[in-house]
Amino acid sequence: MTPAIQVDQVCKRYGALTALDRVSLEIAQGEFFGLLGPNGAGKTTLISIVAGLTRASAGSARVMGHDVVRDYRAARRALGVVPQELVFDPFFTVREALRIQSGYYGLRDNEKWIDEVMEHLDLTSKADTNMRALSGGMKRRVLVGQALVHKPPVIVLDEPTAGVDVELRQALWRFIMRLNRDGHTIVLTTHYLEEAEALCGRIAMLKQGQVVALDTTRNLLDRHSGCYVELRIDPDQLPQPLAARVTDRREGGAYRLALRDYIELETLMHELRSARVRVVEMEVMQPDLEEVFVQIMAAAPRVSSAR
Amino acid sequence: MKPRRGLVNEQRETPGFPPQPPFLQNPRWSLERMAGFYTLFYKEWLRFWKVKVQTVLAPVLTALLYLLVFAHTLRGRVDVYPGVEYTAFLVPGLAMMSVLQNSFANSSSSLVQSKMTGNIVFVLLPPLSHREFFFAYVLAAIGRGLVVGAGVFAATIGFVDVPLAHPQWVIAHAIAGSAVMAALGVLAGIQSEKIDQVSAFSNFIILPLTFLSGVFYSLQSLPPVWQALSHVNPIFYMIDGFRYGFFGQADVSPWLSLAIVSASFLALSWVTLSLIRSGYKLRH
């Protein structure tokens, strides 16, 4: 099957600054894909190249098999983008904005679908309100609606929940998950790592314009750390071989140790028993994406080809 | 890289998200392809029409003030065409000046505002070609110019008696002249990052060229050096050809004027289209 998005050796240079350095990615149809990385890592630049908003200095990008420069009509028709900036056209109402956007894609009689999109995004009561008069959250919804007017098979959301209240965030995710269930490919950048962990099947991490990790969310979580144990002990002194494995000393005096897997718990207990240390409290924890992210970002060298 | 098959295809038939209509997948459907161009034109038209007090009424009022002041102070002092009253001579000049200035203002300010607020993405994301982009902005700007020009005539019709010798020349020159200024506005809008760059363009290039183009006088009343200099000003030909349509006389042949103005439009369009196509300052 044709990949939904294919990025091949894409570079983007602004003068001396390299925003993207030979980035290659392939996103299959139907995936829920996360694009993570710190500010300035190149996420938005990459999305802009795929959307045709920016021209790559080298390399190529395709949407549903269509080159974004040579075959831009087909590529853009297949793509819906929710931009990061809260942009709007102050001259129009919500319905006008959606109608106009729809017309740009060649859809002149799209009223039914526009009504439906507004319904899903809870915009129906604001249909005839001028964009200027909407709150930030409402403007964000309209942006999502504008990206969907032409029913694109591939939808890219650049930090759609930045500055959005909890309720709207939940509603937005339910809607986007539904789109994904219906077969739409979703590409998402977000700063909320728990969101990425809960939603994305596969994740690419960018750092300084390079892909430093690309794997399924499950594998990333498994690979980068087994589990954590938090221990409070009596006497409050860890035996030597264990002391070296402490990653953190928590508030209240608990030690935090990283384990490769659960089997290591047995070794741990054995060491404690032989040192005659009593366990007062113990908690075993799964790593979350945030920890994996921090680890990868800290470990990734400036120049690497980890893929 | 394995796709997550689990999420694909299950509950695919959920109502609400039907597939794209067939013509969207088939780019050859030309009538629907025109819809993108038409929509951008309509959006540009709506943009100025929604604020018509500012975009249509205000320039008409400005033109009327010029007419009032200049006609009052210069009547009988300035030689124009034989047998033509100065006030009657002035009205088409002012109307054309309004047409030209508003055509330029429409495309340039729309583009630069969209670039500044970032809502230009709504136009850059869809599958619009560089030609559709350019001609939609130009056509809407011509539209605004003609609406304002018509407004100037409508406002003066009861006070000033202006003959109408050749309406076809009036229309041809109004369209050709405003097309040049509209294209120039697109060029200035693409080139500029801020609104003051567009106003600089307007104040230091468009305004002087307009004022020195013979809006307020006939070239025959100028010393020979100034007459010669005026002939390199493209706006002179727009005004002169437009005026020919009313009085049946002009400083140069209306054919020459139309040829020069059309050639300017073609040259400007070529430059601007190449810039849009390359993504210059739009897709950087």
Q: What characteristics describe this protein?
A:
heterodimer; A: 307 residues; Alpha-Beta Plaits; 2 domains; four-stranded antiparallel sheet; 14 strands; 28% strand; elongated; B: 284 residues; mainly alpha; 70% helix; 0% strand; disordered N terminus
Explain what the structure shows.
The complex is a heterodimer of chains A (307) and B (284). Chain A folds into two domains: 5-221, 3-Layer(aba) Sandwich (Rossmann fold); 226-286, Alpha-Beta Plaits (2-Layer Sandwich). Chain A has a six-stranded mixed β-sheet, with helices on both faces. Chain A has a four-stranded antiparallel β-sheet with strand order 2-1-4-5. Chain A has a four-stranded antiparallel β-sheet with strand order 12-13-11-14, with helices on one face. Mean pLDDT of chain A is 89; it is low at 303-307. In chain A, helix 3 packs parallel to helix 5 (136-148) and helix 8 crosses helix 11 (289-299). Chain A is α/β, with parallel strands linked by helices and 307 residues long. Chain A has helices at 43-51, 72-77, 94-104, 111-120, 136-148, 166-181, 193-199, 217-224, 240-243, 264-274, 289-299; strands at 5-14, 17-27, 32-36, 58-63, 66-67, 79-82, 154-158, 185-189, 202-207, 210-216, 227-234, 246-249, 255-259, 278-285. In chain A, strand 1 (5-14) and strand 2 (17-27) form a beta hairpin. In chain B, helix 3 packs antiparallel against helix 4 (86-117). Chain B is elongated. The two termini of chain B are 31 Å apart. At the A-B interface, helix 2, helix 3, helix 4 and helix 6 of A face helix 1, helix 2 and helix 5 of B.
Strand order of the largest sheet of chain A: 6-7-8-3-9-10
Taken together, the total number of domains of chain A comes to 2
Helix content range of chain B: 55-70%
Strand content of chain B: under 5%
Q: Give the N-terminus to C-terminus distance of chain B in angstroms.
A: 31 Å
Q: Main beta sheet of chain B, described? A: none
What's the SSE pattern of chain B? HHHHHHHHHHH
Distance between the termini of chain A: 22 Å
Tally of individual helices of chain A: 11
Q: How would you classify the helix and strand content of chain A by structural class?
A: alpha/beta
Order of secondary-structure elements of chain A: EEEHEEHEHHHEHEHEEHEHEEHEH
Number of helices of chain B: 11
How would you name the oligomeric state of the polypeptide chains in this document?
A: heterodimer
User: Class by helix and strand content of chain B?
Assistant: mainly alpha
Global mean pLDDT of chain A: 89
CATH superfamily of the largest domain in chain A: P-loop containing nucleotide triphosphate hydrolases
CA gyration radius of chain A, whole angstroms = 23 Å
